[in-house]
Write a structure and sequence with these properties.
By secondary structure, the protein is α+β, with helices and mostly antiparallel strands. The protein is 23% helix and 41% strand.
Amino acid sequence: MSRRFQMIQMDAFASKPLEGNPLAVFPHADGLTDSEMQSVAKEMNLSETTFVFRRDPAIERERGIRVRIFTVSEELPFAGHPTLGTAFVLRGESGATEVALDLNVGKIPVSFEQQSSGVFGEMRQRDPEFGQKHDREAVARVTGLRTEELESDLPIQTVSTGVPFTIVPVRRLQTMQRLQINFGQAAEYLERSGGKFFFFVSRETVDPAARLHARMIFYNGEDPATGSASGCAAAWAVQYGVAKPDERVLIEQGVEMKRPSRIFVRASKNNGQVKNVRVGGNTVEVMRGELTL
C-alpha cells in the first residue's frame, strides 16, 4: 500500500528563486523511520532535508515543533539554513512573529519581521563554545593553502553554536575564489582536532556591503549557505573585533557556485563573553511535490 508525503522546497538566505541554499521540507513526516528519512535525504540530494513531526499544541508551545535534519549521509543535531527554511514553511501565511523548532540541540526560536526585501527571519542560536586554536602551518598543510595566504592577525579557531566549525581566515578574495581542498585529508585533521568542517572566511568581499566572504566545502561538494557556520563566524567576528557587538553584518557565500547567498549575523558581548548569536535572511518557496513510498 502506497504512502504519500508532501514535500516543499525552499531557497534559504535568498529573496529570489534559484539563489541561496535549497532545502527539502517534509511538513508531515509521521510514519517515516530513521532509515527511510536517511534514504529520502539521499534521494533529495541536497545539503539537508528536514522532517517535521507535529505534537500536541501545549507541548509545541513549551518545547517547539519537533524537526529532524538529515544530510545525504547523516543526521545533524543542528544546521542553520534548514532551521530558517523549515520555520518559513511552518509559519506559512499566518503572519506569526515567531516559530520555535525543537531540534536535537534543543529549542531554537526563529523570529520574523517585514522588510523591503520581503519577510526576514532570524534564528537565535546556542551561545558559542570557543574551542581549539590551530597552528597556521598545520592548517595550511591539510587545506593546500600556503601559510602566507592565511591571516596572521586573526586566529584559526573551532567554534560551536550547535555544530563545531573551524573558522579559517584567508587574506585575499582571489585565494578564496580558487580554493580547492582535499576533503579526505581535511576531514582526518578535523576529526583529530574536534571540528566538523572548515569554514573559510575573508574580509575581502565581492559586495562592498558584506563584512565577510565565505566558503564551506564538505563531503557533498560545496554549501551555498551555511547558517550554523555563520553563527560560529559571527561569534568569532565579535570576539576578535571583525564586527562590533550587536552589529548586524552581512556574510556572502555561494558566489563561486552561482548560488549567491546573503546571511545576516550579529552577536552580543557581555563581560567578555559572546552571547545571543543571531543568524537571519530571506527565504523563498520554489517547489511543491509528493513523495510516494
